[in-house]
Amino acid sequence: xxxxxxxxxxxxxxxxxxxxxxxxxxxxxxxxxxxxxxxxxxxxxxxxxxxxxxxxxxxxxxxxxxxxxxxxxxxxxxxxxxxxxxxxxxxxxxxxxxxxxxxxxxxxxxxxxxxxxxxxxxxxxxxxxxxxxxxxxxxxxxxxxxxxxxxxxxxxxxxxxxxxxxx
Length: 167
What we know:
Number of domains: 2
Low-confidence stretches: none
Number of helices: 6
Order of helices and strands: HEEHHEHHH
Radius of gyration: 22 Å
Distance between the termini: 40 Å
Strand content: 5-15%
Structural class: mainly alpha
Shape: elongated
Mean pLDDT: 85
Number of strands: 3
């Protein structure tokens, strides 16, 4: 029995979406930068910046009740909220064929394959599991799939509008 070429293309496209998801998570920016900040007395103002957490915790002000914390990476949120969903949606839009429900199903299956690959890689490398992270993980994945789906539909809408405008 021969598999239709459209299905071959869609399965290949789903696997490529999975690879895009896998590598976008694998090479993502960290959620915080290496430097550590020292804040005192519930202040939002940074008192000092240190190379790492160990150096910060050795500061006399830390001993006196100040706290050390990682500085958030300003690129982390835009990467996951804008860049990655757009790139994955563009890839899926160009690779997947058929009606929208099938394409969206394959798109989200590819995303889940990529994320599953990242999880397997993490477990193989002996990654630790955070109980809070496990609790919120399904919601984070669902939100990410929703962002990519919205980006996909927006790209499809814009493409149709441009084709209608050219006609």
